[in-house]
Amino acid sequence: MSLLRNLLLAGVAAASLSGMAYAANDMSPEAVAERTKPVGSVYTAADLEGIVDTAAAGSSSEPAEPRSGDAVFTAACSACHATGAAGAPIKGDAAAWESRIAKGRDTLLNHALNGFNAMPPRGACGNCSDEEIANAVDYMIDAI
Ligand code: HEC
Fold first, then answer.
1. Number of domains in the chain
2. How far apart are CA 52 and CA 122, in angstroms?
3. Are the C-beta atoms of 82 and 90 separated by less than 8 Å?
4. Which residues form the domain of 136?
């Protein structure tokens, strides 16, 4: 189904739902107010309390959870390891990975952290923690 058709159906559904509370010919002040109210509603911070933790958003002192191997791979490794750019072994290419995996996970992790020939240290990811790099290495190893 096309996106446009989905949007239209959603719109029709929303319109018919909002009109359900009062009959179309109901002239009571409540019914008229309901029919003539603005289409959108504005949410104040108070409305959002409990829905969104507004106080914590963006100012959390909790350390962020380490990103998954999948997420780190997509963000920082896929440019080379999904394409083979610079001669990088492609994720899921068993022939390219088996001899590397034979070197042992520690060696692969060391090379991922410190660089190895054309493999840049940390895949040039400036904001990846050691744990996140390890998650991405495991993600590629597990794909074999
Ligand atoms: C700029 C391209 C590039 C990016 C980005 C990149 N790599 Fe690599 N990677 C390479 C290349 C090229 C090699 C092959 C190096 C060789 O064997 O000479 C490689 C090899 C590796 C190896 C195997 C090392 C070995 O000892 O055989 C691992 C593990 C690895 N990369 C992990 C990662 C991880 C994890 C990321 C993302 C955080 C990443 N790479 C991002 C280019 C890249």
1. 2
2. 34
3. yes
4. 69-142
